[in-house]
Structure formats: structure tokens, C-alpha cells
Amino acid sequence: MLQSFQRPARRGLVAKDRFEDEARFLRSWLERPLVTGAVTPSGKLLARTMASYVDPRVPGPVMELGPGTGPVTDALVRRGVAQDRLVLVEYNPEFCKLLKRRFPKATIIQGDAYDIGESVGPFIDEPAAAVVSSLPLFNKPLERRLELLNEAQELTRPGAPFIQFTYAVVPPIPTQSGEYSAHASNRVWLNFPPARVWVYRKR
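^ that's the sequence the OP posted. Answer follows.
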């Protein structure tokens, strides 16, 4: 069942929020490690790196898959993406409630981000400008990762980026077919654990 949330007032991500977010993440990871995929939220530098690949001047919604407690969402807003353009797909209902409070103008969808067409399709009426993903892709078979990338591209503008971070040293989605170009950021050593951002675009 999909649920769309809207409204109340947003608070900044202060130190107290960060500590509480880490506790929430750890609890969620202990309960469902294959769903949450990480024991802590993305650090500020990693979040800023991911947001840097989104051009706020390009029209259309910006879809975020697996936003968790919202560190990347916050970086996107600081980057200049208006809250009302954000479409956030989160599986965890507790995280959805938290996102609703922090980003009241965003569209919050409680649903399966891997089934992006069904989850997001009813909530957007124009091609998306970008897809930003914090999903634990390595928990899924390669075939399913490729399906997600292809389904996301069907909902975005030509050349729109699919932005994904990983802790691994190899890309989360190989590009041997040549259908997609892939660009990797430098490793973000100050994140815990260190991570890298991969950006995929359809040729």
C-alpha cells in the first residue's frame, strides 16, 4: 500500500537530530539489514557530493530512492532544489514520518523503491530531472539492479543522471553493454564507511 504525505514545519539537521538519526538507522539495520543496508545515515560530505550532480535549473521532479532520515534530501534542498519538487520513496514507515516533519512540502511515498514505476508513477506528471539513490543495490541480483536503472530512465528526461553511492570498490551497476555512461567521484574518505558516488546516464 502506497501512502503520500505532505506538510508541517521543517527543522534543520542539528547535532541532536544526527545522533537520533544514527540510533534510528542502527535499530532499523538490526531489524532489517537487507532493507536498510547501512548502519548509519550518509555523512554530510557524501550527501553534498551526491547532490552536486543534480542541476537545480533543469525542470521536473527530483526523485530520491531510500532517503532514510534525509541527509541527502537536506543536501538537495541546500543545493537549490525546491522542496515541492522532491519525490521521496522510502520503505520504512518511521523514516517516512520523520521525512514528513523535516520536508513538509516534499511528496513522501511509503513504498518499494525497487518497483519505481508503480511507486512513483502516480505522483509525477512530467519527466524527472534526476534520480538520487541510496538503496543497498548490492543486496539485489545484477539483473534487478539493471531493471531499476532502466525503469528509472523511463521516468526521467533524456540524459538525466541516476546517482548512486556505494561503499564497494566496484561499480554497483556494470556498464559493459555501452547503453549507459558511468562516472565515478573520488572516494569520500571522510564518510563512515568511505564511499564513492557513481553517476549513470543513458547514451
